[in-house]
Amino acid sequence: MRDENGAKKEVRGYAGTPGYTAPEVVLGHYYDHVVDFFSLGVMIYRFLCGKKPFQSAKRHHGAAQVKDDKQRNQTAELDRNVVEMEPSFPLEYFSANARSLVKGLLCKNPRKRLGANGIHEIKHIHEPPFTPSLDEIHAEGQQHIGKPPQDVEFHKVRLTPEFEKSLEAFNYVNKVIIQEEIVEVLKKVNATEGKRPGHSTGDTLGEIPIGETETHPDKQSCMARCSV
């Protein structure tokens, strides 16, 4: 935290999520941006092992206990653990480098905390050994959603060259999205008007060229046929 002139600024007062707030915040001391490094350590700890570093193993029980009182007790316990408790680092979750990083970030003394003298202290973040590009990330764990279901009634619908030509000004056109939109329109037309004689749901769309309109009989001829 800094003021308008760039000088370091310290504040005082409790703020933040219980279990993530630094000891100096819990104790009511003046603090600066170094509290954020402590919160970063808590988040990394949770990412690696799935629980808060200062979460007590003791469970709160008692059906007669009021919910607000229970929440208040849990908050007080987390704050107390932040000040007094040293987190454990199970070997199955923390490598030597991970333990060194998180332990430095969770240092209770803000002046000795990793990052207190500048972000360059955290080499894991400031100078990563390897930064892959988005195209190089191998997401083997991601499952393909599979082929989307096809519409039974309009499964043969395809776009005509005339319609595709009208989209040449666009940088990118997803034909699948456009086709699905046209199919939805056809469904609504069939639902409201019914299938007209000679109307095809089949092989092509856009039989009428772009910019032209379908010719309709004039009103007089319609009236003449209706009066017969």
Automatic annotation (TrEMBL):
Protein name: Rhodopsin kinase
InterPro entries for the chain: Kinase-like_dom_sf, Prot_kinase_dom
Residues annotated as domain Protein kinase: 1-130
Entry keyword S-adenosyl-L-methionine: no
PROSITE patterns listed in its UniProt record: PROTEIN_KINASE_DOM
Keywords for the protein's UniProt record, in alphabetical order: ATP-binding, Kinase, Nucleotide-binding, Serine/threonine-protein kinase, Transferase
Positions of the UniProt region annotated as Disordered: 193-228
UniProt GO molecular function: ATP binding; protein serine/threonine kinase activity
Claim: tRNA processing is one of the keywords in the record: no
One Pfam family here: Pkinase
Top-level taxonomic group: Eukaryota
Organism whose genome encodes this protein: Reticulomyxa filosa
